[in-house]
Write a structure and sequence with these properties.
Blueprint (H helix, E strand, L loop, with lengths): L1 H13 L13 H9 L18 H11 L3 H4 L13 H12 L19 H11 L4 H4 L3 H12 L4 H4 L5 H12 L11 H8 L4 H21 L8 E13 L2 E16 L2 E12 L2 E10 L2 E6 L2 E6 L8 H8 L15 E9 L2 E8 L1 H14 L10 E14 L5 E14 L2 E16 L15 E2 H12 L1
Parallel strand pairs: 6-12
Antiparallel strand pairs: 1-2, 1-11, 2-3, 3-4, 4-5, 5-6, 7-8, 8-9, 9-10, 10-11
Helix pairs in contact: 2-10, 3-5, 3-6, 6-8, 6-10
């Protein structure tokens, strides 16, 4: 629920016919963290996160990531493959003898072949000590699902082409996972014990892991909640061609989802460019009812904003998105914990690139049914959210600060958004109230027919 609430706030600002373009930038943070720990170096051309990795590169990165690079150069390891280049020979040899990788045949490794997500996740799982016995079948066949289960990969990483950036994200996630033997709580602790990572460099990363675990634990009870009532204030400052255009929006909303039955009541008051606008939106019995300052109409949900009913249900059904209820480690720049007004406040700073990837994935999950037309490219800056929770872990307030820029027809639009959402109720305490005159709202098709008649 935490992530979905933030997504609602973002979509409220960004649902303006923009298409998000994926890049490797969402994994810059993971690459930098691994580099700081001495577990990733990149190439002569830099990290090259936007390039697809080869099998030889993947194994070389795995060996360095596991702190085995120096040991691999001892000359004590060998492999049977005849096609491995000299620069990858030591890495392939130690990975082969330790059982992390195999060839494509008994004598060939195919070092220049593309490394898929399934391949790299399999390498990492084997390095963590998992085997065919861990899944009851071949680890290769179950690598992705088992990797999701223990937390070394997720749907965002799997979205699109598997690049070097995705590979760094898998590696960084693996640092927080316990090796199969249970001797250490995280792989990073094992690497410190092995002497592969300096303790002083690992300390802030381990502290980050602990605080994120605490944050996720105290707020997990809201992760799959479908019913919510909230009041939100959103301020937006848009700059275009030297002109500043402030906007202010108030939103009161209550939503209850019970299977395919969605009930929604929302009132929006907006002020922009000297204009005041009030709009009421209700959802009941598969229809959307809109009252735009006295002009009342209704239309089937499947015809509203291009969203199909099944898509809206899927988007609203938090139980289907439970695996997205926590922010992946590679998205998080920092987490702090404070107290305010009797509530515990967790402030999470996310990288803009990874937030862009999240929003793009949410749209993609709807199969493109939002009907967005591309006329610009959006770039999100770093994204800060503050979650205010009570002693029982219930979310009471959510703050957000975000900046973004858009390139539209050669001009740059910069937008700064600040929003505060007060959670009025969740779960069984939420109720949706409708006005008494919904039966008087005119069908949109009838309005259009009447308008066409008048025009004739």
């Amino acid at each position: 629920m935490k992530k979905i609430l933030v997504t609602i706030l973002v979509v409220a600002v960004l649902a303006s016919a923009l298409v998000f373009t994926a890049s490797a930038s969402e994994y810059d943070l993971a690459a930098a963290q691994l580099n700081e720990l001495g577990l990733f170096r990149g190439t002569d051309a830099g990290f090259e996160l936007g390039r697809a990795p080869t099998r030889a590169e993947a194994v070389t990165m795995l060996v360095r990531f596991l702190g085995l690079e120096e040991e691999s150069q001892s000359g004590e390891y060998a492999h049977p493959f005849t096609d491995v280049p000299a620069w990858a020979d030591d890495a392939v040899a130690i990975a082969f003898e330790k059982g992390y990788t195999t060839g494509v045949t008994e004598t060939t490794f195919n070092p220049g072949g593309a490394c898929s997500a399934q391949m790299y996740v399999t390498f990492v799982l084997r390095a963590l000590g998992y085997s065919d016995d861990s899944v009851g079948t071949t680890l290769w066949a179950e690598a992705i699902e088992f990797g999701k289960q223990i937390g070394v990969v997720d749907d965002i990483i799997l979205f699109g082409t598997f690049l070097r950036g995705n590979m760094t994200a898998v590696s960084f996630l693996a640092l927080s996972v316990a090796p199969a033997d249970g001797e250490f709580e995280t792989l990073l602790e094992k690497l410190v014990d092995d002497g592969a990572v300096a303790a002083d460099k690992a300390a802030p990363v381990l502290a980050l892991f602990d605080l994120i675990d605490e944050f996720n634990e105290v707020s997990s009870k809201t992760a799959t909640e479908t019913n919510i009532a909230m009041s939100m204030v959103m301020e937006m400052e848009m700059t275009y061609m030297g002109e500043s255009m402030p906007a202010l929006m108030y939103i009161d909303m209550a939503m209850v989802v019970d299977g395919n039955d969605i009930k929604l009541a929302m009132v929006m008051e907006a002020s922009m460019l000297g204009e005041e606008t009030v709009m009421e939106i209700y959802m009941a019995d598969g229809y959307v009812y809109i009252n735009a300052e006295g002009e009342k109409m209704k239309l089937p949900l499947g015809d509203s904003m291009g969203i199909q009913l099944d898509d809206f249900i899927a988007m609203a059904d938090m139980s289907e998105m439970a695996d997205m209820s926590e922010y992946p480690l590679y998205m998080i720049k920092s987490v702090t914990k404070d107290s305010e007004g009797g509530l515990t406040v967790y402030t999470v700073e996310l990288s803009g690139g990874s937030m862009t990837a999240l929003i793009e994935q949410v749209f993609a999950m709807l199969g493109g049914s939002l009907g967005l037309d591309s006329f610009g490219v959006i770039s999100l800056g770093d994204f800060v959210t503050a979650f205010h929770v009570d002693a029982g872990g219930d979310l009471k307030k959510l703050d957000m600060l975000m900046d973004m820029s858009m390139e539209v027809e050669g001009e740059t639009i910069h937008v700064l958004v600040a929003a505060e959402a007060e959670i009025i109720a969740m779960g069984g305490d939420v109720s949706v109230s409708y006005p008494d005159d919904l039966d008087t709202y005119i069908d949109f098709a009838e309005l259009m027919a009447a308008a066409m008649g008048d025009a004739a």
